[in-house]
Amino acid sequence: MPKNPSAPPRAQSRTAGKNHPHAGGGLIHDNTRHTTRFTVIGNHLAQHQELSLLAIGLAVHIQSLPKGARVCIKTLAARFPEGTTRIAAALRELETHGYLRRERGRAPSGRIVTRTISCNQPGRSHAQDHPAPPPAPARKKRPPAAARKPLPAVPRPAYPAPTLLQAATDLLAGLRHHDPRLLLSERDTARLAPGVAAWLERDVTPTAVRHALTTDLPPEPLCRPAALLAHRLTTQLPLPPPFCAPAPPPTVHHPFQTCDGCDRAFRAAGPGRDCRTNLLEAA
C-alpha cells in the first residue's frame, strides 16, 4: 500500500522533563509554543541571584511594553498594587544591575526629555541594541550684541547757567535742518550740550558753532553722528577771549550851581545847595 504523505513517519515522542511527567517530584513544565504576543526573557534575568522578585517581574513587564510606553513610577504604581516606594526601589535595582538606563536628551522640538532604556541583556553594546537618537538640529547662535560705545568726553562750561545750556540744546536740535544725518537722540543731545555751552561761553556765536559742526561732513552715511560732533567740539574748541581789565569809571563833571546863601558858584548834581553847609560837612 502507498504511504500516506500527510501522516508522520513515526509517532512523536515527548521529552522527559519538559511536557511529559516523570516519576520524580519537583517542577513539571506544560509548555505550548507561542507564535504571537510573546516576549523572550533571558535566564540571566529570570534566575538573577541578586534581584528581588519584584524587580525581576517589573523588568519582565517593562521588556514586554511597546516602544514609547510610559514607565515612570507614577504610571507603574497606577498599574500594580505595590505602591510608589517599592516600585521606585525595584527600578533602582534594575538600574544598578544594568537592566535600565535613564538618559536626558533634547527632543526635535528643543525640549529636554528623559528617556528610559530597557536592556534585555546588560553588558552588550548600547549602540548595537539601542542606536542613539539623531542629535537635535543645532540652533544657530546669535552673535552677542555689541555694547554701545560711550560718547567721547566734551568740554564743559565754567559757569553752566540754565539759559546757556538751553541755548546749546536748541542749537543741537536744529542741526538736523542743516543735515538730516545729524538727527540726535535726546540722550546724545544732553551729553553734547555742555560742549556747545563751552563754545558759547567763549563768545562764539551760535552761527559760528553751527558752522564748525556742519561744515565738511563726510559724504558717506554717518554711523554715529553724535560721536563725530563730540570729536569736533573737543578738538576744535577755540581759545577763551583775551582778558581785558575793566575800564575805570569816567570822571563826573557836575554843572555849576549857585549857592542860595551867598551866590557863590560851585559844582553839584543839582541846584539848591548852601556852600556853608558844604563847608561844615567837610569840616
Question: Could you explain the architecture of this structure?
Answer:
It contains 10 helices and 4 strands; from the N terminus they run H-H-H-H-E-E-H-H-H-H-H-E-E-H. It is mainly alpha-helical. Among the domains are: 43-129, Arc Repressor Mutant, subunit A (Orthogonal Bundle); 162-235, no CATH class. The strands form 2 sheets. A two-stranded antiparallel ribbon has the order 1-2. The protein has a two-stranded antiparallel ribbon with strand order 3-4. Helix 3 crosses helix 4, helix 6 crosses helix 7 and helix 7 (186-201) packs parallel to helix 9 (225-235). It starts with 42 loop residues before the first helix and ends with a helix.
Number of helices: 10
- Parts with pLDDT < 50 across at least 5 consecutive residues: 1-8, 10-17
Q: Indicate the proportion of strand residues.
A: 5-15%
State the CATH architecture of the domain at 43-129: Orthogonal Bundle
Task: Tell me the distance between the termini.
Answer: 183 Å
Q: Please identify the structural class as seen in this structure.
A: mainly alpha
Reported by name, the CATH topology of the domain at 43-129 is Arc Repressor Mutant, subunit A
Mean pLDDT equals 81
By DSSP, the count of extended strands is 4
**Neighbour order of strands in the largest sheet:** 1-2
- What is the CATH top level name of the domain at 43-129? Mainly Alpha
